[in-house]
Amino acid sequence: MRLSTRFKGIDRSENLQSLIERRIYFALSRFSPRVTSVSVVVEDINGDRGGIDKRCQISIKLDRKDELRVDATHADVEGAVSLAANRAGRIVQRKLELWRSAQRQCKHSQKPTEQYDDVIPTD
């Protein structure tokens, strides 16, 4: 699973980068065989005006070429990252469950061909 991070209007720091990596890996590591890459964008929407203006956007690419997007806003960066990472984990889990149920439906909908060893003549 590749992880890329971008910052817009927020100073990049080692602590913030480490927090993002920990939150993403905690939320998505159990799906790592299916998740090919994760892109995180953290930005300050309103600049210096304050308020609930920190946004974290996460794009997740799965092995079947699907792309999932998650967005969360919060008053601080850590909260936005945590909310978005938790949502990302739930959305990936839901998507994989849909794939599994679709596979089960396909297997159950195929009728097995019946073969009879004893053929009774109809004279």
Descriptive keywords:
123 residues; alpha+beta; Double Stranded RNA Binding Domain; 4-stranded mixed sheet; 2 helices; 28% strand
Structure report:
Helix content is 39%, strand content 28%. The longest helix is centred in the C-terminal third of the chain and has 33 residues, at 77-109. It has one domain (2-109): Double Stranded RNA Binding Domain (2-Layer Sandwich), CATH 3.30.160.100. Helix 1 (14-28) links the parallel strand 1 (2-8) and strand 2. The model has no long low-confidence stretch (mean pLDDT 86). The chain has 123 residues and is of the alpha+beta class. The protein is elongated and about 90 Å long. The chain contains 2 helices and 4 strands. It has a 4-stranded mixed β-sheet, covered by helices on one side. It has helices spanning 14-28, 77-109, and strands at 2-8, 35-44, 54-62, 67-74. The protein starts with a strand and ends in a 14-residue tail after the last helix. Pfam families: Ribosomal_S30AE (PF02482). This is Sigma 54 modulation protein / S30EA ribosomal protein. One of its GO terms (cellular component) is ribosome. It comes from Bythopirellula polymerisocia. Residues 102-123 are annotated as: Disordered.
Please sum up the structure shown.
The chain has 123 residues and is of the alpha+beta class.
Strand content: 25-35%
CATH first level: which class?
Alpha Beta
Helix content: 25-40%
**Number of separate helices:** 2
Q: What is the end-to-end distance?
A: 67 Å
Quote the average pLDDT.
86
Q: How is the biggest beta sheet arranged? A: 4 strands, mixed
- The tally of strands reads 4
Radius of gyration: 23 Å
Structural class: alpha+beta
The CATH topology corresponds to Double Stranded RNA Binding Domain
The arrangement of helices and strands along the chain is: EHEEEH
Poorly predicted regions: none
Can you list the strand order of the major beta sheet?
Answer: 1-2-3-4
Shape descriptor reads: elongated
Region (Disordered): 102-123
GO cellular component, one term: ribosome
Protein name: Sigma 54 modulation protein / S30EA ribosomal protein
Organism: Bythopirellula polymerisocia
